Structures are given as C-alpha cells and as structure tokens.
Amino acid sequence: MRRDLANLSSAWAPAKVNLYLEVGPPRGNGRHPLDSLVMFADTRAADRISARPAADISMSLDGPGAGALRNEPNNMVLKAAYALREAAGLSGVGASLGLHKTLPTAAGIAGGSADAAATLRVLNQLWELGFADAALEALAADLGSDTPACFRAQPAVMRGTGEMLSAAAAPDLPIVLANPGVAVSTEAVYKRFDKLRGGASFKEAPSPEYSSERSIAEFVKALQARRNDLEPAATTLSSPIKQVLATLESQDGVLLSRMSGSGATCFGIFETEDAAQNAASAIAKKKSKWWVCASKLRGSVAAQPERL
Fold it and tell me: In the beta sheet, which residues pair with residue 54?
C-alpha cells in the first residue's frame, strides 16, 4: 500500500432515488407521514468521503458539484463528524475530511444525507470506535430523516416520517438520472404541497414484491400504480422538471420516468444498461447544462458501498 494511503479511510456516498413517494397531510408537529420505496445508485452516481488523522476536524471540497457547497454553513459532513466525536466522548481527536462532490445539491437525491452517512462509516473506522451499525444508524437519525436509509444504502421502504425502515426486495435497475441544474427547496415544495391540499387520500399500501423469477419490466409495471405526490407541487415551482421528464420519456428503452424526492432530479428506468447509457449520452449532447448520469440502482442482493 502506498504510504499516503496507509492512514486513509474512504467510502462512497451514493444517490438515493425514491421509486415512489406518497405523502400525507402534515401532523400536529408539522411533519408529513410518507410511504416510499428507496434504492441507491452505484458509484457512477455517488460522492466520495475520505479522511486522514488530524489534530482537529476540517474539510476540503473538490469535484464538479463542490461550488454549491463552498459557502454552506451547515455542511452535513462536518455535522456528522462533530456528532460522532461527541457521541464517542472524544477530545483532542480530529480528521482531515475530503468530500469529492459529484451529485447536485438540493436535488431530491439526498446527497447531503448520503455524505453524512458515509462520514459516520469512515470516521468509525479511522477513529477505531467499534460502533455497531445500529448505533451509527441511531446517530444518523439525528442528522436528518433520510440519513438512516442512506446509512443502510440498501433497498428499503420508508414510513412514518422517514424513520421507519424495512428491507425491500428489488432487482438491479438500469437508470438515467437527470437534473436541469436548478436547485429546489424541499421546504418550499412541502409548503406548496400543503397549499394544494395534497395527501388527502394518503394510505400506506403494500410495496411491489419481487422474486428472482420476475423480470425488471414486471417489477416496473407494478410501480406504475404508485406515484410521487410531491411532483405536482415541485413542477409549479420549477417548470424545467416537466422538460426533464418529457426528455426521459422520449428515450428508447425507457420503462418508467419519475421525479425523485422533492426534485428537481428525475430518473428513467430502462430495459438494459446499454439502453440507459445510450439515452444518457443522447440527452447530455442535447442538454449540455444538465447533470446527466447513467447508473444502476443496486438491488437487494447488492453489497454495501465500496471502500478502499
């Protein structure tokens, strides 16, 4: 091993995709109940967290998405690092953290939550804490409703207000992710959702079941009955979302297109990886200012995010 890697810990922070997201009206505490099937991209659609020993906690940024975070006062990587150090009762221990930012921000794919989850994994290893996954997941819950699911990085059904997770069976799904380069505020989307009186018919329903004998097309067909309840609200705030969806829907081999989370990132599920790659290339040529990425949502037999 190279000497400069000897004390380096590193982990991927993959994009989270909501295959469907059904939302109820706000409860007394203002939070919305939800029912969502989430899956996670491979390393083509992922940030990367690295850490080396240091006297205190610090972070450097690079990558194509770094600019949007340079003046962000509440960066999730630093929040996760400080939270873990406090939970471990450590003092005088630090880390030089690096965030290679590929995913767009405020994009509906939980990039910040994924970064925080990966930070917990990296520092647990670097600081030799020995915290079990259950303890780290509990800590992740304090960092945001998406962070526990991002820590697992496995297909899951999210319920409650995102804190109730159950494992889900799903196949690998070839996808294209596309974002028009417009940040969308989750808070603003939920406010518009409430103004439109969304969620009146909300009711938890069984998720599509999958067995190894079923094809991707059959699994996707079962998804057609579900929806993203935030899509109408988000499209009134960000009209480019409609264009992204229409572009994905026009590609050869697409089985389903939908917005993820609160937007503006949308995804298309494709019949094959070749079809997804061809579509991503075609879209990128026509929409040079969009973020476009062919990837694969990892099914229920996929491993945890890769590490050095």
Answer: 94
* Of 120-124, 205-209, 263-267, minimum mean pLDDT range: 205-209
- List the helix and strand counts (H, then E) for the chain: 9, 12
pLDDT at 73: 63
Q: Radius of gyration (Cα) for the chain, nearest Å?
A: 19
- Are residues 178 and 266 in contact, defined by beta-carbon separation less than 8 angstroms? yes
Which of 46-55, 200-209, 233-242, 281-290 has the weakest average pLDDT?
Answer: 200-209
Active site residues: 16, 146
CA-wise closest residue to 38 among 118, 154, 211, 179: 154
For the four alpha carbons of 142, 177, 65 and 14, in that order, the dihedral sign comes to: positive
What region, left, alpha or beta, does residue 30 occupy, with left being phi > 0 and alpha being psi -120 to 50 degrees? left
Give 131's contacts (C-beta < 8 A, 6+ positions apart).
84, 87, 88, 124, 139
Per-residue confidence at 158, pLDDT binned at 50, 70, 90?
very high
DSSP states along 34-48: EEEEEEEE-GGGEEE
- Note whether 105 and 112 are within 8 A (CB): yes
DSSP character at residue 106: S
What is the spatial distance between Cα 225 and Cα 20, in angstroms, rounded to a whole number? 9
DSSP per-residue string spanning 54-86 = ESSEEEEEESTTGGGGTT-TT-HHHHHHHHHHH
What's 131's DSSP letter? -
Average pLDDT, integer, range 107-128: 97
Task: Take residue 63 and report the two structure tokens written for it.
Answer: 């990558």
Alpha-carbon distances, residue 186 vs 9, 136, 272 (angstroms): 32, 25, 32
| Phi, psi torsion values for 6, nearest 5 degrees | -60, -35
Q: How far apart are alpha carbons 169 and 110 in whole angstroms? A: 21
Q: Whole-angstrom Cα distance, residue 163 to residue 278?
A: 37
